[in-house]
């Protein structure tokens, strides 16, 4: 796959590096359809039904110079290595040969059926993200176990916000991935999913699965 603008490799590297700062072993899903490459990164998700954490994903779409078709979930570190070559030499972006399993990557929503819910200011998302981060920090003991961490994150980041009923974890995603500088966010809904979009990218979020 060849990016229409090789300079986009640097932007994608920044996005994926931000996702790795949340989880060093993060996976990335790459979907190429025609002349568009969609890059999905995780912000938070429950690995099992017992882990009641909202799912929050980041998405950025970039143009390809020629039509391509691909769909693979791979290690973020491997994609960063290949993006570095694109940035240095304008080389094509090659898919890493080894795919990985990431539960969130098999549950992403489709592109149709979204309804408009309104707009949320970027400043409000920043406030929600900072308030939530402080609340998580204050609620956790010195050495929390996985169950305690999951419970606290679910309670705080699973809080429903308006317009459209998006989970507060989407605000954390907007800050963590550097999307707040892209202006206010349009909110759309499709079933349990909410999509928050601005010039910097998209956040896809849904509540934790019900037991």
TrEMBL record:
DUF8010 domain mapped to chain residues: 2-105
UniProt superkingdom: Bacteria
UniProt-listed InterPro entries: DUF8010, DUF8185
DUF8185 domain segment(s): 109-209
Protein name: Uncharacterized protein
Naturally occurring in which organism (per UniProt): Rothia kristinae
């Amino acid at each position: 796959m060849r990016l229409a603008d090789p300079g986009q490799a640097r932007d994608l590297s920044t996005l994926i590096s931000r996702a790795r700062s949340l989880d060093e072993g993060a996976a990335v899903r790459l979907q190429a359809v025609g002349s568009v490459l969609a890059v999905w990164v995780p912000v938070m998700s429950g690995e099992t039904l017992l882990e009641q954490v909202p799912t929050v994903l980041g998405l950025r779409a970039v143009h390809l110079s020629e039509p391509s078709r691909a769909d693979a979930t791979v290690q973020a570190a491997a994609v960063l290595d290949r993006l570095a070559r694109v940035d240095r030499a304008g080389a094509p972006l090659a898919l890493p040969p080894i795919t990985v399993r990431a539960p969130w990557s098999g549950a992403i929503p489709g592109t149709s059926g979204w309804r408009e819910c309104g707009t949320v200011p970027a400043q409000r998302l920043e406030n929600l993200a900072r308030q939530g981060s402080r609340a998580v920090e204050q609620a956790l003991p010195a050495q929390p176990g996985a169950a305690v961490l999951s419970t606290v994150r679910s309670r705080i980041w699973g809080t429903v916000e308006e317009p459209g009923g998006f989970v507060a974890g989407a605000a954390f995603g907007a800050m963590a991935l550097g999307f707040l500088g892209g202006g206010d966010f349009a909110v759309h809904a499709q079933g349990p999913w909410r999509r928050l979009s601005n010039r910097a990218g998209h956040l896809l979020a849904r509540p934790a699965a019900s037991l």
